[in-house]
Amino acid sequence: MSTEQPYDKSPLSFVSPGQIIVRPQSISRSQSPPPSIASLHLNNSAFEDQLFYQYWDHYYPRTAKSPLKYAHSNTQLGSWQVAIKTQCLDERMVRGALLAIANGSMYRNSEDGRFKYAAIEAYSRTLRDLNAALQGDYQAVSDGVLACCKLLATFEVSGGASAPSFANYERHIEGINRIMLLRGPLSHSSYLAHTLFLDARFQSMIVAMRKREPCPFDSPEWLTLPWLHRIKDVKDKLIDLMVQVPGLISEFDDIALQRHPAQDNPESRRNFFLKARFLQNAIEAWDVMLMKSTDPELLQATEDGIPDTFYIDNMFLAHTRVLHWTMLLRFYELITIACNEIPVKDAAVTLDDTMFEFNPVPYALKIARSVGYFYQEDGGVVLAQSVSFSVGSTALYFSKGNLRDSVEAKALWDGLRTGKTGKMVSKFLISARNHDRATRGCQTEYKSYSAEDALTKTQTY
To answer: 256, 278, 457, 258: which is closest to 342 by C-alpha?
Structure first.
């Protein structure tokens, strides 16, 4: 937050599995709003409800099939907030976290400083309440507490009370991971807990990808038990595959960077490529499932990207397609790097192998051609935020090769500079880049196999 803000909103700081420390600084008296405003925000339940619905009206797409009105599935965009609205909106901490988000949204739309103050006050108060709730047994933590944590992470993605903070967002996600892991997979099979888990594991995958470490929810137990009484849909099964990619990235780093010298041997390299082949086989099986379960005309219309004119009520398919392309972009880029950096004789995959095509370029172009659809005015904040990871991955890929001057790259840059939603996503990605530089340093990334340039060092998104 800027130096003008009255308090440094420190995020959750995890020092042990059973303790969370929250240390917000005191709020400057000189910047307090009129008492009437504070009273409305802190004591008037009807006013709070009105504020929540104003926020959701801005957050969700303007469509008859908005998740707020029509729950397509648990993996529909923003469905976890719908579950919160129907299941635990009366809980104090949940309302406090929502007040922080809603007031932050009102401030960004109106630039009325009183909403900014109210957002900071609600955020600070909710963190203190959360700290008290988490001093005991994590396994006894209620779904409402988990919902509160999810909302606080969203507060940071949405811009907080001024600008997005990836550092705070990452800390919240790591805290959510610890809570869910200690609660166990079976604790996330009920309606609210399950819906929160679905979005949380996707966010966990994003953070794991950036940190180049395995996702904590890629084990067989976490891929099955939360669905004990449910049926997975096409997006559930796609994310089952996506959560495996960070583990492959980490395994590649172990070998290529010789983190554990004994692991860099022909057998470990061969095992890496075998895992890559198994994942590719699973991706191909998922492709077949998507084709069988989707209208052929819709698939054809989105074959080369999501056109701006694609019907907004089909946003579930649009988002699923972009996530699929993002996984292939990151996975195939990893494989091209691995084939250059850790080749092994008779490996399961070699540069001359025709087992499968691992060219990431088409998928980067498809994602870039889709940006306009997700940044449309009627799409709401949730539609734009849903592709932040995809846009960041594509922007990184474009920045490393000749594609940076392509028409598609220009469209992507323009999208990040246009409108409130594009600028919001851009600020979040910049915050993520700066956070990585400060905490992890510049990581070595490589251009695609088709590029003739030397290896480059750049910052990962």
So the answer is: 256
The DSSP bridge partners found for residue 456 are: 445
Q: Residue 92 to residues 84, 183, 199: CA-CA distances in angstroms?
A: 12, 22, 22
Dihedral angle of Cα 72, 76, 82, 88, to the nearest 10 degrees: 110
In the chain, domain spans:
1-212, 244-461
Q: Nearest to residue 186, comparing CAs of 227, 145, 140, 240?
A: 227
Please report, for residues 109, 263, 295, 421, 443, the alpha-carbon distance to residue 180 in angstroms, rounded to integers and kept in the order given: 34, 31, 36, 30, 29
Smallest CA-to-CA distance from 131 within 27, 41, 14 is with 14
Q: Which residues pair with 457 in a beta bridge?
A: 444
Looking at residue 363, the DSSP 8-state letter turns out to be: H
Taking a C-beta distance cutoff of 8 angstroms, is the pair 366, 307 a contact?
no
Kindly state the helix (H) or strand (E) to which residue 82 belongs, with its residue range.
helix 79-87
Q: How far apart are CA 244 and CA 282, in angstroms?
A: 11
Q: Which tokens belong to 130?
A: 């959360």
- Distance (Å, whole) CA 154 – CA 70: 22
10-residue stretch averages of pLDDT, the chain, 461 residues long: 34 34 35 46 76 92 71 72 92 96 91 91 93 74 93 89 82 94 94 94 96 96 95 95 97 85 76 92 96 96 96 93 98 91 67 61 94 90 92 89 82 81 81 78 40 29 27
pTM metric for this prediction:
0.84
- Using alpha carbons only, what angle is made at residue 172 by residues 315 and 445, rounded to the nearest 5 degrees? 75
Three-class SS of residue 20?
Answer: strand
Provide the strand spans (E) within 207-274. none
CA gap 71, 67 in Å, rounded: 5
